[in-house]
Specification:
194 residues; mainly alpha; three-stranded antiparallel sheet; 8% strand
Length: 194
C-alpha cells in the first residue's frame, strides 16, 4: 500500500468522492474539522492542510460551516482530485470512460484487488483503509454513520410560515395605531409627550 497515496487508492477503489472522504477523515483525526451528526454539518477548527486535497476541502467550508454532502461533492470535482486522477491516467491505471467517467484499466483492477486485500488484512492506517474499503472501514462509529447518511432534503415551507407569523397587512391588523407609534397620552390631553 506504500506505493500509492491514500487519494490514489481511493480513486482506484471508490472514485473521487472517496478521495474527498479520505481528506475529511485525515482532517477529522487531526481534530482540524468537526462533523455534526444531527445536521451533517462540517465546521473547521484549524485551517492547516497537509496537502492540496485537504486544502480544497478546507476552502469549501466557510467559517459558519457547511453541509457534508455539498463539501464532499465540491472536493470530488476539484482540480486537486482531478490532478491525482490525471496521474493515474498517465500511469495507465485509470482511463476516461463514457461521458468522461474514470474507469480502472486491467492493471488498475489488479492493483485495486491487491489494495483491498492489504486493507482487509489490517495493514495501513485508517485513511488508507477507508480509501480501499469505503466507509465500512471507518472505526469511529459516529463519523461512519454521518458519512453513510444522505443529505437531508430541504424543507418546502409555506410562505406564511417563513414570515414567522408576522402579519404584513397593516389594514387587517388588530393592534391600535398608537400602541407602537412611540407616543402615548397618559391623561388623554393629546399632547403626545412621552
Amino acid at each position: 500500500m506504500d506505493e500509492f497515496t491514500s487519494y490514489e487508492i481511493a480513486l482506484l477503489c471508490g472514485g473521487p468522492t472517496r478521495a474527498a472522504q479520505c481528506a475529511l477523515l485525515a482532517l477529522y483525526e487531526l481534530r482540524r474539522v468537526r462533523v455534526s451528526r444531527g445536521t451533517r454539518r462540517v465546521t473547521v477548527v484549524e485551517r492547516e492542510p497537509d496537502d492540496g486535497v485537504q486544502a480544497a476541502l478546507l476552502d469549501e467550508v466557510p467559517g459558519s460551516g457547511f453541509q457534508l454532502g455539498h463539501v464532499l461533492d465540491a472536493v470530488a470535482e476539484s482540480d486537486e482530485v482531478a490532478a491525482v486522477a490525471g496521474g493515474l491516467v498517465k500511469t495507465g491505471l485509470l482511463r476516461r470512460g463514457f461521458r468522461g467517467r474514470l474507469r480502472p484499466t486491467r492493471e488498475g483492477r489488479a492493483a485495486r484487488r491487491r489494495l483491498r486485500a492489504d486493507a482487509e488484512s489490517g495493514t495501513g492506517d485508517a485513511v488508507a483503509r477507508l480509501a480501499a474499503l469505503g466507509t465500512v472501514a471507518v472505526e469511529d462509529a459516529k463519523l461512519r454513520q454521518v458519512m453513510e447518511m444522505d443529505n437531508p432534503k430541504p424543507l418546502d415551507l409555506p410562505y406564511a410560515w417563513a414570515l414567522n407569523g408576522v402579519n404584513r397587512n397593516t389594514e387587517q391588523s388588530l393592534l391600535s395605531d398608537t400602541q407602537y407609534s412611540g407616543y402615548y397620552d397618559s391623561n388623554d390631553s393629546g399632547s403626545g409627550n412621552c
